[in-house]
Every structure is written in structure tokens, then in C-alpha cells.
Amino acid sequence: MENKIEDRKKLYIPARIKVENEPLKGFSSRSLKWFLISGIIASVFCLIVGLISKEFSYGILLWMFTIGALAVAFHENELNMNMVNYFMVLFRFAGEQQKYEYFFYDTLDDMEEKHGHRKQSK
């Protein structure tokens, strides 16, 4: 059992090979599900905006913009990645980076003064 799990972790899926069936071209079933859920939430929000503003054209324009942005965000390219995945990788990479503080000293005397010790002369 343990070997099967390790073998599955080593599975290499080359680029441009789809790992899931695509109900719509460019949308795997997982990304399509998230697109539909986000679209329903956006539709409700845009309906509320249209009711509050009493001008449904604002709500319809906002809805069209939101659905377009969601389609771009969840559409998968030939590498099986969408914009949401790219941003998750970007934020994860930025969070893993460590910051180091560097000092540049012109002379050895500057360094000794900064750290408060001098070499004993014999």
C-alpha cells in the first residue's frame, strides 16, 4: 500500500496533456464548478447593486465585467493552469523568500567600529 502512494507521487504528467475531462474547452470540471459558484455569487451581488442603484444597466454592466473576469481567471491554458493557480504560486513563492540584511564596509576600521571590537595587537 505504501509503495502505491509513493508511485503516485512520482507520476509525471507532461505538459499539454489534460488530466481531467473538459465539459467545456479550457475548463476542467473543477474549474468549471468554481466558475459557476463564483458566477452565481457575482450574479446575486450585481442584482443587489442594480436594485440599490435603481438602474439595472449598472448591475448588468457590472455582471458582464465580473463574468468576463471570472472566465479569464478560471480558464486553463495548455499547461493545465489558470490565473488563480498562477497567483497562488506567486504568493506562495513570495512568502517563502527570506530577507537578508547586508552591510558594506569601506575599510576594516569601519567594520570594527560598527561591531565595537578591535583586534589585539601583540
Biggest sheet descriptor: none
User: If you average the pLDDT, what whole number results?
Assistant: 78
Radius of gyration: 27 Å
Terminal Cα span = 69 Å
Helix content: 55-70%
Strand-residue proportion: under 5%
Number of helical stretches of at least 4 residues: 5
Contiguous runs where pLDDT drops below 50 for at least 5 residues: none
Helix/sheet category: mainly alpha
Order of helices and strands: HHHHH
E-strand count? 0
Please explain how this structure is put together.
- It is a single chain.
- The chain is 61% helix and 0% strand.
- By secondary structure, it is an all-alpha fold.
- α2 (29-53) packs antiparallel against α3.
- The longest helix has 25 residues, at 29-53.
- The model has no long low-confidence stretch (mean pLDDT 78).
Layout: helices, strands, pairs:
Elements: H1 2-9, H2 29-53, H3 56-74, H4 83-96, H5 108-115
Helix pairs in contact: 2-3
Brief overview:
This protein is mainly alpha-helical. It has helices at 2-9, 29-53, 56-74, 83-96, 108-115.
Keywords:
single chain, 122 residues, mainly alpha, 5 helices, flat
